[in-house]
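#structure-requests
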Amino acid sequence: MKLRLIDVSILVAYLVLMLMIGWYMRKKASQDKESYLMGGKKLPWYMLGLSDASDMFDISGTMWMVALCFVYGLKSIWIPWLWPVFNQVFNMMFLAKWLRRSNADTGAEWLATRFGTIGKNVKASHNVTVAFALIGCLGFLAYGFIGLGKFIEIFVPWNMIEAYVPFHIAPQYVAHFYGIIFTLFAMFYSILGGMHSIVLGDVIKYAIMTVGCIAIAVIAMMNLHGHGGHTLNVPHGWADPFFGLHLNMDWSHIVPAANQKIKDDGFGLFGIFFMMMLFKGVFASWAGPAPNYDMQKMLSTQSPKDASKMTGFVSIMLLPVRYSMVIGLTVLALLYYNQLDLAAPGGGTDFERILPGAINQFLPVGILGIVLTGLLGAFMGTFSGTLNAAQAYVVNDIYLKYINPNAPTKIIIYMNYLVGVVVVVLGVTLGFFAKDVNSILQWIVGGLYGGYIAANVLKWYWWRFNANGFFWGMASGIASALLLPYVKIWFPSVFFNLDLYNWPMLFVISIIGCIAGTYAAPPTDIEVLKKFYRTVRPWGFWKPVHELVVADDASFIGNKRFKLDMFNVVLGVIAQLCFTILPMYFILWMKLPLLITIGLIAVIMLILKKTWWDKLEN
């Protein structure tokens, strides 16, 4: 174990600070429901944006990205489109302000502005959204829990503390034990202080993380370019972000296990993989933010204009800093690969161990403590943000809606405490059944979100779509996603191992549910549609409703920004990719690509100043 007293002291000081923040913020958070869950909708957009970026800088995702960067090189910048990461650009350009105009507290509550509040179909659409949100939150809690345990296991080998633990733990559950310990800290400060403590904690964590990432980048550059310089031993094409139909990257004579990872991942036909990511990603982005911490931060902004600014701020604050760490640790791992222990507990090579292994092996005392603290804070931030979203759905959309609508503030706060504890227990329990970070990630983005997308695209852009269609579209998609892992076992020759390739089937099933459900019930009440169209002002297939609104108010002007929004989206996605690859070119010191990237960012930002920022409205 390489940790020294100063490293441990930095970590302990941070944990104590988080507990103090939770305790200090508890009174402010307990003023009312909105203050607890959404910071009273008074927090500045840049603080919420920094918090959102901080929540996305999680341990599990960063471990996964470092493993991808090691194996796939600069082509790894495309693989996070699985989420898809460019949904932030769609949110930034138009969807965030559409969402915020509802003034709702959760995604399920937002549905009342679209479908109304009366009728069994409306109730069913509300309930299925709550179910999806909770399944997604539990999945992300398990995802973060697994990554945290694997991370800590590198720094604190079990044989160092086994003698001090009064019970036996099987080797495969050591990571889970560590995960439980640090989960308790995250649970304490987030449950007590609500959104106020979460945002403040995220800002502190981001500052620590930035220092750590810059330190890693400097150390990587010194090792790569100092003392006469070194050459990275990588396959042909590793340093090229562009690709053809096939990946054509052969690690046979360098790290043979990397070839096996490419095969296991199913990314060999990279061109087809990319097209599937793009196809799925565009629809997922049109669907708007999923009901998780990202949506809660948008709904917590002071105005629709601030919601747009917040989401635009996220990519700028997140990507250059995060990828400085990703490429920095990748460079160190490539230079000194033989010094890393990447053996998986069950045999084979676990490339997700590169991040903790490289940090433990190559960072000096002090810097090690800062980076370790920042990454633990990253887990706590993501965990607490997801927990806050789950609390919002259970308390706001179940307890207050169906059980105790007139509950006083004190009871609401106590319910949030109770729900927080129960959700954490369920998320941790789920983490015991997941194989690894990548497996649960693939199920969430390839399976579960296949059931979400169709219904949530149609709700924005098609006036005839109703609550019954929403329910059956969501229910059929979610049920298919939940059954998919078992069906793949029963019929292995029919389904793909990679859930992304099964996504079109889930999407089609969900669309059938949407269309059949929509025409099996009458349209949404016309007054609800007119109010939604006037308030949210979407573009899309709204002509019949538009004509009725204009008949009531001849001065009303519909949203004609579709072409401009799509133009801005294309520019935004290019800029997002540039922010991603910028630190990679810098640390590898690829001068011409670096200058081109900086030039592209400057030009795009000047254009978006005129086509987006100057045109923002509430």
